[in-house]
Design brief:
Length: 156
């Protein structure tokens, strides 16, 4: 694995991916932050609040999907420096309901480097218990990372 600060240029790519995450308008709706840990690894810290609850008083499944998809996506996109990836499928499993508090999404690349990549993620609550997991497939898009306003490796 490449360290985030390796001379290969991975560090600027990782920091630019973190900036891209922060720049996405949807992320203004959630208190969250992304950290690229190494090639193929990401972590998102996320605060679940009552605004994300379903009628029975726990986080709605859309929150699980958002955290799992983002963590897996960014883990996979660490391996691709020229193109934005697109989620083509995602399977998720709910293990435990979550209410208010910090949740950590841990993403890990599994396979693929060319056209299609596979990555997984798991959600851990503030007590350290797994509350969900998912696996996604991601495909290179025609969208150049360099064309996205939030992605700036030269400023990382």
């Amino acid at each position: 694995m490449t360290s985030p600060e390796s001379p290969s240029g991975a560090g600027p790519h990782y920091r630019a991916l973190e900036a891209l995450y922060r720049s996405a308008p949807v992320n203004a709706l959630f208190e969250s932050s992304l950290e690229i840990l190494a090639e193929g690894r990401s972590r998102i810290e996320f605060l679940v609040t009552p605004e994300a609850y379903h009628a029975a008083g726990a986080a709605h499944g859309t929150i699980y999907f958002k955290m799992l998809d983002d963590a897996a996506f960014y883990a996979a996109n660490t391996l691709i420096t020229d193109r934005f990836l697109l989620t083509t499928s995602f399977n998720l499993h709910f293990t435990k309901p979550v209410r208010e508090g910090k949740v950590t999404a841990e993403g890990r690349w599994i396979s693929g480097r060319r056209r299609v990549l596979v990555a997984e993620a798991r959600l851990v609550d503030a007590e350290g218990e797994e509350i969900g997991r998912g696996t996604g497939t991601f495909m290179r898009s025609r969208i150049a990372l360099s064309s996205l306003a939030g992605y700036r490796p030269d400023q990382a």
